[in-house]
Amino acid sequence: MSAASTDTRDAARRPGASGASRIALRALHLLLLPLVLIGAWWLASAVTGLYYLPTPGEIAATFVEVWGAERLAADVLPSIGRLIGGFTLGSVLGVALGVVLGLSARLRAVLEPVLEFFRAIPPPVLVPLLMLFMGVNTTMKLAVIVSGCIWPILLNTIEGVRAVDPVLIDTCRCYGVRGRRWLTTLVLRSASPQIMAGMRQGLSIAIILMVISEMFASSSGLGYTIIQFQRSFAIPEMWSGILLLGLLGFGLSVLFGLAERRVLYWYNGVRAAARGE
Amino acid sequence: MLDVTGLQKIYPGQQGEVEALRDLTFDLGEGELACLVGPSGCGKTTLLKCIAGLMRPSSGSVVLAGTSVTGPPPDMAVVFQEYGRSLFPWLRVRDNVELPLKEKKLPKQRRRELSDEALDAVGLLKSADAYPWQLSGGMQQRVAIARAIAYEPRVLLMDEPFAAVDAQTRADLEDLIRTLWKRFSMTVLFVTHDIDEAVYLGERVLVMSSSPTIIQDDVTIDLPDERDQINTRGEHRFAELRTRIYAEIRNASQSATAQPQEAGKAH
Q1: Is the dihedral angle over the CA atoms B75, B79, B83, B85 positive or is it negative?
Q2: What is the pLDDT of residues B153-193, one digit of tens each?
Q3: A40 & A70 share domain
Q4: How far out from the chain centre does Cα B251 lie?
Q5: Structurally, how many domains does chain A consist of?
Q6: C-alpha B246: how far from its chain's center?
Q7: A132 phi and psi angles, rounded to 5 deg
Q8: Do A181 and B103 form a contact (C-beta atoms < 8 A)?
């Protein structure tokens, strides 16, 4: 380990390091820790021989077997669909409500204590309640996801809208920028760093709630499938489902990061300029 | 063109009211370039905000071309002191300049003509596709000036626009303002705390007293029309005008602080 890290540092300092070797080093940087962890797991499961702890090899083999085209269509895609639907709905509602509240101090004064209360309720406890009201269906699952992921988006949007620079507000007034253009060019763009931060939190909450809503009450979906495997002691299958969820979350986070880089290109530029780069 | 009559602004405060502006009356003719100079804290920005329609005066009136100003008038542009904060960092330079023109519902081609002309006039046509934060402070203020010019205002207000740029850039920008003023025939009201700048730029200098503020003097700057950073500032007449205004501002701030000083001597 220590030898590897010394090599890396030397290579970074060496100006003539060729492109190929730099790419190889970068790959090593990214993969080293995952490989070590998988190795440690392998060792642990091989040594202990625990029934509940299959080897990574078994899990990988099961993964390929279990998550074929059929399950993908029956369980994975509906889950992802509900996740994206709920997250989109939560984002639209959160931003819309956040803009209204951010612009009106009077509304904020009335609504903020109530919002704080609702925010404090852990969303999973709403599942039994929403089941009673809505039944066991897609609407209920969307409602659960929205009820959880809306809060960071709403509260961050309020903060972002309140923090719009007064000089820019005066500038817009002087140049007659109002109405829709005022909203989109001034308010939403100005609040976009906070909105994106809220959406990032909201996304991870949405994934959690997607799984939970399916564990409680469902006949399909990732959460449902994992619980079924656990109940039937299909241990490697259960692990492969957990792995799939992890990969899904990771993939979505990468996609979100790419979108964020585009939307906040200006913001990163301003910050870099302020640091004198 | 611009008539300011009996303007007064009182801010409500926790320890009673604060009278920032007491009684300001002056008028600017069409196409005039006037500088407004006064000691710090005399309410220059308050006055400018009242003229721009961003703030309601407590009493008195501002009339622009026969119309009373109650909100931002459509043919007035403002350049703010905080250039870094008055440009939209998420818009490229050209989009910053064209944003007000979109709101004016000008067709795309006309917007392009106006932004080209304005950016060219401030020497930034090449930077049209840059973001403001990629430019230096002086260049950012030029973008703000280009945006104001492209708006085709009849009156241009400038609130200490060069207070935060370095000396060389400042000299360049001062000359730019005179050039633009002649080329685009606008009425310009330029607020500054810098007496040299006021004398160098203006056809006329309005001297404000310290708070509560009145117009203390109205000085006509009888320097030749063509001004030059080295020769104009070296002229005898420039020094005379500068000394006169400097003395007035010093008197103004001394009379404002006279009472506490007297009290100090008594001990």
Answers
A1: negative
A2: 999 999 988 888 888 888 989 999 999 998 888 999 999 98
A3: no
A4: 23
A5: 2
A6: 19
A7: -65, -45
A8: yes
Closest by Cα among A203, A214, A217 to A241: A214
Same domain, A237 and A177: yes
Cis peptide bond prior to A122, omega within 30° of 0: no
Same domain, A144 and A37: no
Which 3 state secondary structure label does DSSP give A63? helix
B200 touches chain A (CB under 8 A): no
Q: Does B102 touch chain A (CB under 8 A)?
A: yes
Q: Which of B125, B152, B179 is the last residue of a domain?
A: B152
- The boundaries of the domain holding residue B103 are 86-152
Question: Given strand B67-68, what is the order of strands in its sheet?
Answer: B67-68, B59-64, B2-11, B18-28, B213-220, B204-208, B33-37, B187-192, B155-159, B76-79
Whether A88 and A182 map to the same domain: the answer is yes
Q: Give the separation between CA A182 and CA A168, rounded to whole angstroms.
A: 11
Tokens of A88: 């989109």
B45 touches chain A (CB under 8 A): no
What ipTM was assigned to the predicted interfaces of this complex?
0.87
Contact B90 A167 (CB under 8 A): no
Cβ–Cβ < 8 Å for A11, A21: yes
Q: For chain B, how many residues are written?
A: 267
**What is the per-residue pLDDT across A149-179, written as a single tens digit (0 to 9) for each?**
999 999 999 999 999 999 999 999 999 998 9
- Inter-chain touch B89–A266, beta carbons under 8 Å: yes
> Hey, is the C-beta of A273 within 8 angstroms of any chain B C-beta?
yes
* Residue B107 structure tokens: 């067709």
Write out the H or E segment, with its range, that includes residue B62: strand B59-64
CB atoms under 10 Å from CB of A194, counted, come to 21
Residue B173 and residue B62 share a domain:
yes
Minimal Cβ distance to B102: which of A170, A174, A181: A181
DSSP state of A275: T
Residue A161 CA to residue A191 CA, distance in Å, equals 5
Query: Do residues A22 and A94 both lie within one domain?
Result: no
- Which amino acid would we find at residue B267? H
Show residues of chain B in contact with A171, CB under 8 Å. 78, 80, 86
CA A95 to chain centre: 17
Query: Can you tell me which residue has the tokens 């997607």?
Result: A210
My answer on whether B69 and B90 are in the same domain is no
